[in-house]
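Handout for the seminar on molecular recognition.
Each group receives one record of this type.
Step one: identify the two inputs.
Step two: read the structure output and locate the region that could contact adenosine-5'-triphosphate.
Step three: write two sentences on what you found, then compare them with the reference statements printed after the record.
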Amino acid sequence: MSASGAVISAEHLTIRFGDFTAVDDVSFSINKGELFGFLGPNGSGKTTIIKALCGLIKPTSGTGSILGMDIREHGADIKQHVGYMSQRFGLYEDLTVEENLDFYAGVYGITGARATARKRELLDLTGIAPYLTRRAGALSGGWKQRLALACAIVHEPQVVFLDEPTAGIDPVARRSLWDLFFHLSAQGVTFFVTTHYMDEAERCGRVGYIYNSHLIAVGTIAELQKLPRANPEGTVRVKLEADGHSDPSAMLDALRALPGVREATIFGRSIHALIETAAIEAMRAKLPGVIIETIQPSLEDVFVTLTYQIANAASGAAK
Ligand SMILES: Nc1ncnc2c1ncn2[C@@H]1O[C@H](COP(=O)(O)OP(=O)(O)OP(=O)(O)O)[C@@H](O)[C@H]1O
């Protein structure tokens, strides 16, 4: 662990592939036992950061550390101390559950009585014992990811990177996997989890949001909701709800035709919108029968607002 107490840290981390900057001056730190969520659009640099922190690729400039080990110098040691699991984790589909566990134990040099004891612990943790003799390829998506997690932590890492661990699996299986993450995090394991699911992000203690290779926000959900940039001066965030018969998409079209509407999107039968405060009274008059109430931004609202600001600033600068 570093002097600051951080278990994972990035310090001005920059990674270029030729002329392309995939990660641009990214800094953050994560403490022991935290479950840190990392979000951002496709191609924004999440996996590249994970690879650099795991010692798999060298930063172009800046650095980072895992458990106090500098990623530029201790890549080989770091690999021994972290667990890494992705959506496409390398399970051997033709091997059974048990053979996969044995294989990964062997990769980390865990053998004999220690391997047997660790296998028992992982079976208890994941509940996968009933499928021990089933081929990994014949497991459901949720069980495959449980097995992948078991294999990724066979060497008892204190730091675990999960890259979209629940992509494409059903909500019940997702919830059970998250229960496992929480269980391990309560034991002091530190998690760095990328996800595109807002409900998963909301389960994390803190969240980072990366856009176009830049880390543009880090904090707890409550901190992000209160960010001044997510609540621009002179605007108000509202929920609009019409009577049960009204079509939300027609209401959205009517709303977008009005002046002072910065953002608007459908949530179920209602609409969340960012409106210029000065336009709100005129809006009430134009939308009779619609209940308009002030709300806090959701996490998705925060990310969308921050993203639009940067995209608009970039297109303004390009003009
Ligand atoms: N080895 C490489 N050579 C060149 N470009 C690369 C390389 N690895 C990644 N990139 C580029 O860097 C950018 C960031 O990729 P990265 O995989 O980190 O994104 P991501 O945020 O994880 O995306 P996703 O959500 O789709 O997984 C992408 O434009 C990608 O094409």
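Reference statements: The pocket of adenosine-5'-triphosphate is lined by residues 17, 20, 22, 40, 42-48 (CB under 6 Å). Residues 6-219 form a domain with the Rossmann fold fold (CATH 3.40.50.300).
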